[in-house]
Every structure is written in C-alpha cells, then in structure tokens.
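Lab notebook, page 48
Experiment: co-folding of the full assembly
Goal: obtain a model of how the components sit together before planning crosslinking
Operator: M.T.
Materials (sequences as entered):
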Amino acid sequence: MSLSNAQWDSTAAPRDEDSFLKGVKDCIPTLLGYLSIGFAAGVVGKTSGLSIFEIALLSLVLYAGSAQFIAAGMIAANSSTTAIIITIFFVNLRHILMSAALSPYFRHLTPLKNMLIGTLLTDETFGVAINKAAQRQNISEKWMHGLNITAWLNWAIANIAGAYFGNWIANPQKFGLDYALPAMFIGLLVLSMIGRRKIKLDILVAIIAVVIAVAISTMFSSSLGVIAATIIASTIGMAVEKWK
Amino acid sequence: MEVRWSIFIIIIGMALVTFIPRVLPLMVLSRFKLPEWGTRWLSFIPISVMAALVGQEIFMHDGKIDFSFSNLEMLAAIPTFLMAVKTRSLLGTVVTGIISLMVLRYFM
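Observation: model returned without errors.
Model output:
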C-alpha cells in the first residue's frame, strides 16, 4: 500500500480511486455498533457453553450478528446440527439481494476478486458501500477491502472481548449503545435518499418496505420479513418509475 | 485449541450456507450484462433493505408491533432522523441515536 498524497487530497478527481486507508476511515461509524453488539454476542456465546476459541472461530468464519445469537441459543438448546445450519441459511439469505445490488460496481473484476469482496459482506458494510457508490458512481476495490477487513476484525475483537470479560460486566446493552446500528441505518437511509434525487418515490418504497417487513416479521420471521419487503418494495419502485 | 468437533462442524456448516448467498450474485451477475429493468430493480434494493431493517428495529419489540410511547427506540429515532437530515454525518447520527436512547431510558 503506497501512501501517496492523493488520498489526503479531498478535491481529487472522481476517477481517482479511494484507498484502502480511506475504507478503514469510512468504517468508523460502524465500529461502535459492532463493538457493543459483538461484545454481547461474545457474552451470549459464553453463557451458552462455547469456549473462547469456539467464539473466536464463530465470529471470524460466520461473521454475522443475528445469526450468531440464534446459533448460540440453538447450541445451548441442543438443537440438531442440520436444524441449526438450515435456520442460519434462512437468517442470512438476505445477503443475496445485497450482493446482487453491489454486483454492477465490481463488473470489471474477476469472479475470484468478487468472491473476496462478497465473503465479508454484512448489512452494515453493504449500507456504507452502496452509499459510497451513490456519491461517486463507483466503488474502489481497495476501499472495499479496507472497509470489510476493518469491520471484520473489529467484530472478532469485540466477540473475543465479550467472551473474556463477559463475566464481569452484567449488562453490555446499557448506555444506549445497542442503538448504534439502528441509528446508523437511519443515517444511511437518509443519506442514500438525499443522494438519489427521487425522494418521493424513495419515501414510498421505504414506507412499503417498513410495512411489509413488520407485518411478515410478526407472522413468520424477521429475516423473511427483510427478504419479502425488499423484493416487493423494489419491484413496486421499479414499476412506478417505469410507468410514470 | 479447545474447539469441540461437533461445534466445529456446526460452525463450518453455518459459515458455508452464509458464504454462498454473500458471494454468488457478485460472482455470477458481474459476468452478465443485466437488462435495463434488472439494474433499475437493483437500484431500489438499498432503500428497501435499510428501511426494512430500521422498521423492524424501531417498531417491534420481542416479535410484536409496538407503537406506544413506552417504545423508546421509536422515540429515539426522531432526533436521530432529524440529525441525519440536518448534518448528513453518519457518525453524528450514530452518536445522536445513542445519546437520545440513553437520555430516554434515564427519564422514562
């Protein structure tokens, strides 16, 4: 990684690629949320009987917040291996849509390089990346790795810290820290709408998505809620834009 | 290394079924030229995903809809949202959200 002066030059031309280090910096808003949720995930893992090594492995290779809580609960309840894996598959299926939405920006890369980008895709890194895409019309590969790897290591450190210190801290969800990620999504939602200049249609799509997500979640599961809301609301958005 | 074999299998299995949806569209769709309606459809995914996630987070409690004034996450969303509109700073919005909820929990 070369530290040229270009990356400190905020007035650089749009064709100038964002650096790895810029990706690390743009990850900062996610850090607090990951630290608090990751810490909680470590604590929950510990209380469900997992060792610190198992928690470290889980956070590094599964790397998915809600799925880790569900997995810990199911492991503690002695659920079958098959049942756990199938459940987690459905919980994390929503990434399919995020991966698809990012694909136009990495068209110039080989499948292997795309795989490396997708491996560390989460709700939050997707949000930050798509927001970057809206601002600059492109996403730099180096920047994406900077964002991904920072979030990933931060998550693992938080998990291990939770597993290690969890016994001494009664309630890691104090102080409103558990609101860091919802707040970040509120910010990302507002920013992406401002960037797109289709505000009326975007608000309509967002409201439809909220209604469907909440309705489906009460009847089935929250991950199915996100998937159904995304498919239906995006389809309506596409149709309205086409027939207006 | 104290990783039990049974747990190791579960972790690897979960990682695999999580990995595939994360990488497959990126690997496959980048090979094709998508039709115009496809790109248009994809352009609405970010808004929908984020709205769905926020909606679940602030309007639901333990799997139930909660529009009452005791739903502090919903109330804290108001200053958070205003801060996002006003400053357009992601970090500022996160900090506002945390402080709003902390203050609400303290007083209610």
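Interpretation: The first strand of chain B starts at residue 60 and ends at 61.
Next step: discuss with group before ordering constructs.
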